[in-house]
Design goal:
By secondary structure, the protein is mostly beta strands. The protein has a single domain, classed as Methylamine Dehydrogenase, Chain H (7 Propeller), CATH 2.130.10. The protein is 0% helix and 54% strand. A seven-stranded antiparallel β-sheet has the order 4-5-6-7-8-9-10, with no helix packed on it. It has a six-stranded antiparallel β-sheet with strand order 15-16-17-18-19-20, with no helix packed on it. The protein has a five-stranded mixed β-sheet with strand order 1-24-23-22-21, with no helix packed on it.
Length: 339
């Protein structure tokens, strides 16, 4: 793997820690998403903390129990809970009930399409609802591990045991099975719609080139990959799971086949979450020791956003313009950085 050498404890590293607006959320946090100009910090139980540019927090109750899954398009945040409900939250803090599982099963995964369609899973079933169309469902071989909509067309990827299923909900008999042994969890389409990548239960990713379903083995991680983020334009896929950020190359038609990934921002701590900038070749990375770095893809140059010494960073997100970075650790100690 190609490695760059700058490190966060280097005396030459630029620091912007004094420009971070502290956010005290008072709850365990699992993820963060931007709804317009407000950052929505998702708690592990019941609540979402909406934070404005001044750092003021307003708490909104979204579920009557644990929050298990989230997805956002920048205008709405869709959440699934162990109360069997799928709800939507907007920037005003208004909560809308989208669906209720008739058996009150856990909503393990959710996904949101740019045109407003949404998907959710309960057990071995995945469901899709778009506009005024009726609910569609499909059963897959095992409990759903992850859901993702393709960037073009109404196509849903469903990760499960021993592979992934691709499904066009509006076409009869359209499910395509992509096999690979093992348990597949998170799933993501490349922005150009040419590749599908899953994060596995074992410390590895697996990918398929969708034109011919050729396999891409993406291994070598010391730990499980819990966070993936595509760079602006989809040229690289940044991932957690090691003590550096692993970046797989996707600029060519073969993706990472036969290529080594780059390794940036090494620390004496495991990368816990990554978030690529929406417009520039920059990413943010959070670590198991509480550090947050901003890193330039071109040369690995680093900027220190938050010093170490806290719980692992659990949440990291940019707003749509790329002018605000939000982060929080597992205990709910967070911050906002305006660029």
């Amino acid at each position: 793997m190609k490695e760059f050498t700058p490190a966060a404890d280097s005396p030459s590293i630029v620091s912007v820690t004094d420009r971070v607006k502290p956010v005290a959320l008072g709850m365990a946090v699992t993820s963060v998403h931007f709804l317009g100009s407000r950052a929505a910090f998702v708690g592990g139980e019941e609540n979402v903390g909406l934070v404005d540019a001044k750092g003021e927090v307003s708490t909104v109750a979204v579920h009557s129990g644990g929050i298990l899954s989230t997805a956002s398009d920048g205008k709405h945040l869709v959440l699934g809970g162990d109360d069997g409900k799928v709800v939507s939250l907007d920037a005003k803090g208004e909560v809308t009930l989208l669906a209720t599982d008739p058996k009150r099963r856990w909503i393990d995964a959710v996904a949101l399409h740019p045109d407003g369609a949404f998907a959710w899973s309960a057990g071995k079933f995945a469901f899709v609802k778009s506009g005024k169309n009726e609910e569609k469902s499909i059963e897959v071989p095992s409990t759903v591990g992850g859901l993702a909509f393709a960037p073009k067309g109404l196509r849903l990827a469903i990760a499960h045991y021993n592979g992934a299923t691709l499904w066009f909900p509006n076409m009869a008999g359209s499910a395509e099975f992509l096999p690979w042994a093992g348990s597949h969890l998170g799933v993501s389409f490349s922005p150009d719609n040419k590749f599908l990548v899953t994060a596995m239960h074992e410390p590895a990713l697996h990918g398929w080139r969708l034109a011919d379903n050729r396999h891409m083995r993406m291994t070598g991680y010391p730990g499980r990959v819990r966070s993936m983020s595509w760079s602006a334009g989809g040229k690289a896929l940044a991932t957690s799971g090691a003590d550096t950020v692993i970046l797989w190359p996707f600029a060519s038609k073969d993706g990472p086949m036969g290529k080594e990934p780059a390794m940036l921002a090494p620390l004496q701590a495991r990368v816990s979450v990554v978030a690529c900038h929406p417009k520039s070749d920059i990413f943010a990375a959070g670590y198991s020791d509480g550090t947050v770095l901003m890193v330039r893809l071109e040369d690995g140059a680093e900027i220190l956003v938050r010093r170490n010494g806290t719980a692992p960073v659990a949440a990291l997100a940019w707003n749509a313009k790329g002018t605000l970075l939000a982060f929080a650790d597992e205990n709910g100690d967070g911050g906002l950085l305006e660029l």
